[in-house]
Amino acid sequence: MVLSFKYCRYTLFALALLCLVTRLSAQPSADVKHIPFGKNSRISYDLHSGKYSVWVNGKIMIKDAFSWYEDAQQPDTAKIRRSLTMAPLKDQIGTGKQYMITSLVNGIKRQQFFYVYNGDNGFYTALVLRGTGARSRSMSPLTTTALQFPAKDTIRAVQVPFDNDTWVKYTTGDLPAASFISAEVTAVYNTANNNGLVIGSVEHNNWKTGIALKGTTAQQTQLSVIAGWTDSTGTRDNIRHGMVTSGDTLCASPKIYILPGSDWRTGMEQYAQANRKAEPRYIFNWTAAKPFGWNSWGSMQTKLSFAKAKTVVDFFADSCKGFRNADHTLYIDLDSYWDNLTTNGMTGDFSQLTAFSAYCKARGFKPGIYWAPFVDWGKSPRKVEGSQFNYQDTWTKVNGQYHELDGARAMDPTHPATRERIAFLIKRFKDAGFEMIKIDFIGHAAIEADSFYDPTVHTGMQAFRKGMEYLVDQLDGKMLVYAAISPSMATGRYVHTRRIACDAFKNIDETAYTMNGTSYGWWQNWLYDFSDADHVVFEGAADGPNRARLLSGIVTGSLITGDDFSVYGHASEAAKQFLQNQGLLEVARQGGVFRPVDHHSRDQSSNIFVKSSGRYTYVAVMNYAPTSATFSLNLQQAGLSTEAAYITKELFSGKISTQNKTMQITLPAADAVIYQLERK
Predict the structure, then answer these.
(1) Are the CB atoms for 589 and 577 separated by under 8 Å?
(2) pLDDT at residue 287 above 70?
């Protein structure tokens, strides 16, 4: 067996255990206990070997899995006595049964938990250590040489990025070539029928978790769930994961959700919902309408000024009256360089910002602001705003060096000065009347560091939690919170809206990039209140790319524009045409989520997305290619009957037709359409 991964410094250690455990427990054992879950599935746990297999509908899907933990790089591989107990289960996820496999080695009680909830087709598992010295930097409740599919079709695995920085993409790999580590969650599925398996962490307060896969055959892969994963590219870390322990007597892995199903897309949506249950939201629940608005970074950027911002407000109030969300308003958000409206940055005169907020509200809109609370752009010794400390006291150190990414230096989110600066500036924003904040580069708060100011914090995710909870406390329920660059999963507790990918503006390649995130991350609309496709920019682009860019926003979630409407031009005319199309806006205002229909290999974006809402079904189709293309959709793929006929209206053009059985859609290069279907 060849055991090598180039992506993670711990994966070789993790998977090398597979050979060792196999040798230690190769003899057959009759001491197998069965744990039922779902309708016709079970976990078969061998108390002699410490290995377990997962059977789904009578077929084995995960074979000879086991758990492990690392303490000073010494794995526990001894032959030990294990016992199984069962107890009723009731927690924030639901009710059911809790099964616990317990063993004792060198004074450490090792417990493998299996959580089976009523009405759930999957189960959860976790590894817990108890006793003096219970701690670890890396542990796994599930590692196996054989995650397998019986079908002979193409089996594909999804690699999810840890964050949305540096224009990172989701990728896929077909077995046996797939070899990567996915952040927090992965899906492995049959491309012929979408049958698959979702495996992912639902807890992110202590650990960064990676799901390592290495295909071995066309229907089988090695897999290891690794709590304690760090990587210079994947998680932006340059040192090992911090030690996890509670009082040096308790160490628990995150709960891992194992969810087989007939459609992996449904599984990903259930996984997102499970995260919200396992770690309930810290921020207040959003009850207002889906946000529509404008952001200055789309085009204006460094040229932001009080006069230009007011003119944008006037454009929407006077010339684009049809562009409003369901609450009949817009968020007008000042991005970076909002300090152009002050005399001296954070400590300066905020009178123009206050006047801008008042002007927005007077014209029926909600003012927004921007900030990156855990980074220092100045990177020079000076006093921290709102504090007596200096900036150099706050800078995060990694291997004795300051941590920098994206041109910004990370600040320790647990340091008093970082917190005092947050309290100082958030109060000023609230006093100025802002009702929305876009927070950025918050992944800098999740970096593994040499140490943290707070002695109880030992990992990047613990620091992230401390920092984000403090930030949300200061916001005090007064603002819509939008996250730009941020961790994909851990941010869910703290914001309402999150950008699905990195920066995007207007061209078709940027639309394709954004839709890579929506194609494989659409399910995050069940983790966040809304996902967002970043600012939609029209200036300098033809109608086809503009249709595609606008549709990327509608399909992804919330709808934010970004042109410099303080200068009347092509973008203004495009906005009046596209942003006042009430058929399109009604789709954007609705609840429900567009789901991708087609998936491709590597990092290619889906072309077809479907959403049902009331009596209508919507089909969005995008062509990212430089040549025309034809797309085919069997109506059954859209959840419709192939025996019925449907009145079909294309919402950009208004053209009406009748469709049945299969839709054939031919699009010019770099263009998009969206159809509204209603049964005749």
Answers:
(1) no
(2) yes
DSSP bridge pairs for 130:
109, 250
For residue 258, pLDDT over 50 is answered with yes
Give the helix/strand (H/E) hosting 436.
strand 436-439
pTM: 0.95
pLDDT tens for each residue of 385-398 = 999 999 999 999 99
Residue with tokens 């309930």: 280
- Which residue from 64, 73, 55 is spatially nearest to 21, judged by alpha carbons? 64
Cis amide linkage into residue 176, ω under 30° from 0: yes
Which one has a higher pLDDT value, 151 or 233?
233
pLDDT over threshold 60, residue 549: yes
Name the DSSP letter for residue 316: I
| Contact between residue 446 and residue 368 where contact means Cβ atoms under 8 Å apart | no
Tokens 């046996």, residue located: 176
At 458-479, the pLDDT tens digits run: 999 999 999 999 999 999 999 9
Average confidence score pLDDT of the chain: 94
pLDDT band at 71 (very low <50, low <70, confident <90, very high): confident
Cα dihedral value 577, 583, 584, 587, nearest 10: 160
Q: What's the CA gap between 122 and 96, in Å, rounded?
A: 12
Residues 568-597 pLDDT 10s? 999 999 999 999 999 999 999 998 999 999
Helix (H, G, I), strand (E, B) or coil at 246: strand
DSSP 122-150: SEEEEEEEESTT--BSEEEEEEEEEEE--
- What is the residue-wise DSSP string for 166-227? TT---EEEETTT-EEEEESEEEEEETTT--EEEEEE---SS--EEEEEEEEETTEEEEEEEE
**Beta strand pairing call for 436-439 and 480-483:** parallel
The CA distances from residue 348 to 338, 345, 352, 656, in Å, are: 12, 5, 11, 57
Region label for 337, one of left (φ > 0), alpha (ψ between -120 and 50) or beta (otherwise): left
> Are the CB atoms for 580 and 320 separated by under 8 Å?
yes
Distances (CA, A) of 337 to 236, 297, 305, 306: 26, 9, 9, 11
Number of neighbours of residue 664 by Cβ within 10 angstroms: 9
Residue type, 93: I
Burial class (CB in 10 A: 0-12, 13-18, 19+), 92: exposed
Burial of 629 (0-12, 13-18, 19+ CB in 10 A): middle
Specify the residue for token string 């910002």: 353
Average pLDDT for 89-111: 95
